[in-house]
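User: I'm putting together a small comparison set for a docking exercise, and I want a reference complex before I start. The sequence is below, and the ligand is flavin-adenine dinucleotide. Could you produce the 3D structure with the ligand included, as structure tokens?
Assistant: Of course. I'll restate your input first, then give the structure tokens for the complex.
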Amino acid sequence: MKFNSFYSRRDLLKFALYATASSLISSKLNAKNDNILKDKKIVVVGAGISGLSAAKKLTQYGAKVKVLEANNYIGGRIKTDWSFGNDAPFEVGAGWIHGPSSKNPTKKLADKLGCKYFVTNDDNVTTYDEDGSEWDDERWEEVLNIWEKTLLNVDKKLEFNDKRNLRKAIEDINPKALKYPGVLWALSAYTEFDKGTSIEKVSAVYHDDDKAFPGADVIIKNGYSTLINNIAKNLDIVLNTKVTSINTNLGKVIEIQTDKEAYNCDFVICSVPLGVLKAKRIKFIPELPSKFKESIMKIGFGSVTKIAHRFDEPFWDTKIQYFGVNTKEKGRWNYWLNYRTFSKQNILLGLSVGDYALIADNLSEREKKTDSLSVLRNVWGKDISEPNKSISTNWSNDQNFLGAYSYTKPGAKPKDYENLSMPVDNKLFFCGEHTVFDYSATTHGALLSGLNVAGKIIEAA
Ligand SMILES: Cc1cc2nc3c(=O)[nH]c(=O)nc-3n(C[C@H](O)[C@H](O)[C@H](O)COP(=O)(O)OP(=O)(O)OC[C@H]3O[C@@H](n4cnc5c(N)ncnc54)[C@H](O)[C@@H]3O)c2cc1C
């Protein structure tokens, strides 16, 4: 059935916090002198959208920039796989432009490149219980009403220094909510997906305090990587080069050690994911300030797992955009995107979120396939065909990421994200989605953080 719209998923979660991004970007970026950074050598560690945006901007101001990337591709958590065919991008990382308004920098760039979009409709969804019984309109409205009221109520009752996780706060404040069958599904399919972690791990106070641009989410038909390829044009990027240490203790010169050779520079930008910083994969000499190290541990880094199956024939209603499945294990392949709404390919893309994403990441390819297909078979019947091709992701075990995106743990604050954006000794700078609380966990947040750090280097030079 088609759910009659009253809130889109992200509109509810972000309430009225639509914002402009300009306050994040240093006014120095408007400086007239194009050669303000002439002769300055800058190394950017990581070729994700944040590092590449910073590199591009700094190059425009005359700096000699080198980007060192551990992987054999550019884009990091933006990576389009075209192996399903040229009308069916499989986005290994970011899939949507969230809030694609004219102020959203990711959308602005995609528009400039002439990208074509498909608008996804969160309200065009049919949900089933695990045994395949379809929810009727009454059940839907009831579940979403309780979900919405519960989150609003929790939000109203909490003080800023509350240290409870979201589940605990709901159990204390609205104990009946979780007993209604299906509310836990909504909290998982929407809140846990949005946050990239479980409701048991995310802060009750800050789980919905970040900002969003308005507009229904879109998929980029040309693939998200189009943006990366454009930003990276003419940049000096060295692939397959893992940075192992950054030494800012040698006077004016900074030494960057990699698994191959060493590089010297005047400024260094570290744009590696929070998971890599948490795992101390890069040695900083001297050690990072304690405030910085504390914030690295206080902010969380979760996972989201995707699997896409392509079938010879569709066995589902091809006009429905999303299918929800109220699986017993919270977060287990509980939300599916139907490619037939924007592509000719008979593809269903399933998501595991919350703590189940970490379980799914630890399954083998074959186990992941069997596990996700068993959810589809429970709903559509045992006789559905085998997929002719499947692709899945595993972000939490990828050593160059160790997770999908950042979230606010109980006890952490927006100030912790700000701490991670602070320059150390005006030589070592940081950017990445985990350095901007307001737009964390998004491509536009990462892009803005790259422009922001470029402004900081211009100020420091
Ligand atoms: C599954 C998933 C779904 C998502 N969905 C969305 C979405 O729909 N919409 C949205 O807006 N955002 C989404 N995101 C978030 C978005 O992809 C990220 O916020 C953004 O791409 C992060 O960019 P970044 O530059 O901060 O980091 P990254 O893209 O992670 O770039 C960091 C780079 O550093 C490299 N690196 C790591 N260690 C080293 C080292 N030692 N030496 C050199 N290089 C190193 C990495 O290989 C990587 O290329 C999603 C992310 C994931 C994983």
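The longest strand covers residues 243-250. Residues 45-51, 68-71, 76-78, 93-96, 98, 242-243, 271-273, 276, 281-282, 304, 393, 395, 400-401, 404-405, 432-433, 441-443, 446 surround flavin-adenine dinucleotide (CB under 6 Å).
User: Thanks, that's exactly what I needed.
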